[in-house]
């Protein structure tokens, strides 16, 4: 009997100690079986995440900061001549690393600035001792406004830099191929215009976009996310588009699936539901087999990560579902790290969210079935950890 008492006491001690450890850890648990773990906390509207191949996580914060997370250390980069104007949805938005980074030590940024009017521009910096120097403007005077600034920049598999721009509230500009607003643009890494762009001497790659904030590729197939007009027209029709060189995506003449032959239909139209999709990434790693080759979509208003399965032969959506619903609040960006894990940036301090005490955050998604040792703590999690996440007003 004495040894049984001992075992019971040891078991109770194990539960108490592991609960205390769990309480002070960064874990939280999610019903779909994924866990999330904090990577960086207490940020202000992290907008874009970009990993180097050697594992440095670079990211922007909308007020105008470029930071890096490496070896468990958060580094604030000094950036020369960065005159960001954070206003409404504008500010420091996209970041991209040169495809040959760090051998080719260039970092690209998209930001809003004010010179009599609001504008957006894309610049290239040289990365040197955690400082960004030698700013070179690659594309300037992209129309800007307090809303609809686009802002995602990414290198395609062709080595060209792709840039999403919003209509900057002047919706007719989206149909004007002489305007940089409401477009997906494509330039060479030095800012020159590729000879095989669809319109001669123009960076315009596709047009008729309202406010695209996400792009990614599966092999050579390009996809984008786009905010529908839930704001001004009161109906949603957020879109996922398959992007074809030179094509017209319809805004502001049509929204969603119109079947109007002049315009490309989206492959997914959210109808009456608003997701407000932002960053997108195809998951190509092996950590989460159930997500392999699926498109991950960060949603702001939707407050979830949308998982979309695409038939790449027919270019159509097979199915889609949400994970992490209301776990993180607004989600701005999602990327796969070189370690195969999924990293997510929240956007609860963007003026439209309800930030938790440790917002904004960059978190890492922990796959299913790796948290068995935590299960014993689910009960304690429910009691204690939820209490820890007290909501505060912005
Ligand atoms: Ca459209």
From the structure provided, what is the oligomeric state, counting identical versus distinct chains? Answer: single chain
What is the percent of helical residues? under 10%
**Poorly predicted parts:** 381-394
What is the fourth-level CATH superfamily of the largest domain? TolB, C-terminal domain
Strand residue content: 35-45%
- Using the 3D structure, state the CATH architecture of the largest domain: 6 Propeller
* Termini gap: 57 Å
Strand order of the largest sheet: 1-2-26-25-24
Secondary structure category: mainly beta
Q: Count the E strands.
A: 26
What is the N-to-C order of secondary-structure elements (H for helix, E for strand)? HEEEEEEEEEEEEEEEEEEEEEEEEEEHH
- DSSP helix count? 3
Question: In words, what does this structure look like?
Answer:
- The chain has helices at 2-24, 372-375, 378-388, and strands at 27-29, 35-40, 46-51, 57-61, 65-70, 73-76, 78-79, 92-97, 106-115, 117-128, 131-143, 153-155, 161-164, 183-187, 204-207, 212-218, 221-226, 239-243, 268-269, 277-282, 295-299, 305-311, 316-323, 331-336, 342-346, 362-366.
- Residues 381-394 have low confidence and may be disordered.
- It starts with a helix and ends in a 6-residue tail after the last helix.
- The chain folds into two domains: 1-29 and 371-394; 31-367, TolB, C-terminal domain (Neuraminidase, 6 Propeller), CATH 2.120.10.
- A hairpin with an 8-residue loop joins strand 8 and strand 9 (106-115).
- The longest helix has 23 residues, at 2-24.
- A five-stranded antiparallel sheet has the order 1-2-26-25-24. The chain has a five-stranded mixed sheet with strand order 7-11-10-9-8, with no helix packed on it.
- With 394 residues, the chain is mainly beta.
- The chain is built from three helices and 26 strands.
- The structure holds calcium ion.
- Residues 239, 249-251, 255, 266 line the site of calcium ion.
């Amino acid at each position: 009997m004495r040894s049984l008492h001992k075992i019971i006491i040891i078991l109770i001690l194990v539960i108490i100690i592991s609960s205390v450890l769990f309480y002070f850890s960064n874990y939280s648990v999610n019903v779909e079986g994924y866990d999330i773990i904090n990577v960086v906390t207490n940020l202000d509207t992290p907008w874009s995440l970009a990993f180097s191949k050697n594992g440095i996580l670079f990211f922007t914060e909308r007020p105008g900061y470029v930071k890096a997370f490496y070896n468990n250390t958060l580094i604030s980069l000094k950036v020369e001549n960065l005159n960001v104007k954070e206003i409404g949805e504008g500010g420091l938005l996209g970041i991209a690393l040169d495809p040959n980074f760090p051998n080719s030590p260039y970092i690209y940024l998209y930001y809003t600035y004010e010179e009599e009017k609001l504008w957006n521009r894309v610049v290239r910096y040289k990365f040197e001792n955690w400082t960004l120097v030698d700013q070179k403007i690659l594309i300037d005077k992209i129309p800007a406004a307090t809303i609809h600034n686009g802002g995602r920049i990414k290198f395609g598999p062709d080595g060209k830099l792709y840039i999403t721009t919003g209509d900057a509230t002047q919706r007719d500009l989206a149909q004007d191929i002489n305007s940089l607003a409401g477009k997906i643009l494509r330039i060479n890494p030095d800012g020159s215009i590729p000879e095989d762009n669809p319109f001669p001497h123009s960076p315009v790659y596709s047009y008729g976009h309202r406010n695209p904030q996400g792009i990614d590729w599966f092999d050579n197939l390009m996809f984008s996310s786009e905010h529908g007009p839930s704001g001004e027209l009161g109906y949603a029709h957020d879109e996922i588009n398959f992007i074809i060189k030179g094509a017209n995506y319809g805004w502001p003449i049509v929204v969603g699936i119109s079947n109007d032959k002049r315009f490309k239909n989206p492959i997914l139209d959210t109808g009456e539901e608003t997701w407000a999709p932002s960053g997108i990434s195809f998951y190509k790693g092996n950590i989460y087999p159930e997500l392999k080759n699926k498109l991950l979509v960060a949603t702001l208003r939707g407050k979830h990560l949308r998982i979309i399965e695409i038939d790449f032969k027919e270019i159509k959506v097979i199915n889609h579902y949400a994970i992490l619903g209301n776990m993180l609040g607004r989600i701005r960006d999602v990327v796969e790290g070189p370690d195969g894990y999924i990293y997510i940036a929240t956007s609860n301090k963007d003026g439209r969210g309800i930030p938790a005490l440790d917002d904004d955050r960059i978190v890492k998604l922990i796959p299913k079935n790796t948290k068995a040792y935590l299960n014993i703590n689910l009960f304690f999690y429910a009691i204690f950890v939820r209490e820890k996440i007290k909501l505060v007003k912005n």
